Amino acid sequence: MALTNRYKTATGAGTIAALVLVLVFGSPWYADWARDETDPDTAGGWFLRLLAWPAWRFDSDDTIQNIIAADLKAILVVVLTWVFLYLLPGSQLARARGTLSQFLAGWSAYVFAGAFAALFATLIGSNPSLLGAFQAAGSGAGYGFFVGWIVGIATLGGWRGRR
């Protein structure tokens, strides 16, 4: 018997959506394809490149500190999505599953996760600066704003987790 929505939590579903987004679209293969095959001057090309923002990688000509920071950013996007989905009250306090508050809580959790993941990863990279961290947080929040609706949709219909 397949699991039904009766067993789906908003936090778990949103975290799985974030994990899939980071694993698939943050992969080196997708990031290379998006960089080489899309036009950044079109809306579609811009969005396809944006999907690769929390890119993780195994090797690069970059310093090991920057590679670790990039990989940590991808990991933090997923972990912080879980944290914010758990902490944001919108999906937990919704009286009816599938409401707008669940969608907005999932979306906003991804915006916050992207911003904080970029902020923290920039601070541990080589040559960290406060200005660079703030700029990276803005990029992460922008990523979360334009991609987070996917996480918001994934959280629809989920239970709070503990009844």
Please describe what this structure looks like.
By secondary structure, the chain is mainly alpha-helical. The chain has one domain (8-155). 70% of the residues lie in helices and 0% in strands. It has seven helices and no strands. It has helices at residues 10-25, 28-37, 43-50, 64-87, 89-93, 100-124, 130-155. α1 packs across α7 (130-155). The longest helix has 26 residues, at 130-155. The protein is globular, with a radius of gyration of 16 Å. The relative contact order is 0.19. Residues 1-5 have low confidence and may be disordered.
Distance between the termini: 23 Å
Fraction in beta strands: under 5%
Number of helices: 7
Radius of gyration, in Å, reads: 16 Å
Number of domains: 1
Quick take:
The chain has about 160 residues and is mostly helical. It has seven helices and no strands.
Outline the fold blueprint.
Layout: H1 10-25, H2 28-37, H3 43-50, H4 64-87, H5 89-93, H6 100-124, H7 130-155
Helix pairs in contact: 1-4, 1-7, 4-6, 6-7
Provide key terms for this protein.
single chain; mainly alpha; globular; disordered N terminus; 7 helices; 163 residues
